[in-house]
């Protein structure tokens, strides 16, 4: 063969044979690589790029809020991975400041709306802003009701935890459990009425509770105040529970050290208990009202009971149910007897009120505890 002439073509590869499958890849290679990708020596292949070497839009971001670890009791729900010593303190200060600003804004808007819709009104006298007792009551209930979303916002913004973690260990309001708690709350109201009748029957006049009211004012005069009370009292009562049994209990409960072998073991034992928050919340709750003497002792006992039930049942539902039922009766009775102008009158009470309320609160505590055990209500996150 002439060496200048080209030789025969090389043996055709397996892919040039029509109708035949490609040969299996070599041992250890899952796929045939006919044209391996080459990269410049100055840049490693993408699969060798270390994670985090350059910013990537697909890199995972730090979560905005962090819930409490599983198995956390209610009063410790603010003790998350984001906890710092200053967060509960700053949150409490902001809650007071934002609450003042928000309620002031509501008053200004309400006054402007009243002047636009009903015209000017006389200057306020005492604690009353508007000439109508029903409007004064409605404005006060709204001012308190706006605190509920504010508490959740502070928990979300400052403590970096779920918005509704103040409500329960499930980070939400357990509506079914709230309705169940209304049953023993009805029982508490009925038992309180019977105890008041019994005390008034046997106690002297100056030690009576005063269950006898005035005369019925008629349906026409009662319907509007009743609708206002029925619609707004649940928001007002829930807001007070979110502040005094929710925020304060969890704010103090967040300060218990987690290390069981730390130096201040007594500090861990004290603050990991729910009782500092329950007591402080009860004192703040009683101080926020205008009661004195035995009336203040009674409302403080009320705060201790619902505070313990909040921790025991893992949420605010039991406290809200009793608070709503109690306030509905406290407002509806004066409205039905023409004494709505005395809705904000607070002061002293005879010792018989405190003594008569003890078995009623004990009934509610035992009934809710039994019901929570029967319904298998979660106490931990």
UniProtKB/TrEMBL annotation:
Name recorded for this polypeptide: CPBP family intramembrane metalloprotease
Record bears the keyword Mitochondrion: no
GO molecular function, one term: metallopeptidase activity
Domain CAAX prenyl protease 2/Lysostaphin resistance protein A-like: 225-329
Residue span of region Disordered: 1-47
Residue spans of biased composition, Pro residues class: 1-29, 38-47
Upper lineage: Bacteria, Bacillati, Actinomycetota, Actinomycetes, Propionibacteriales
InterPro entries assigned to the protein according to its UniProt record, in alphabetical order: Rce1/LyrA-like_dom
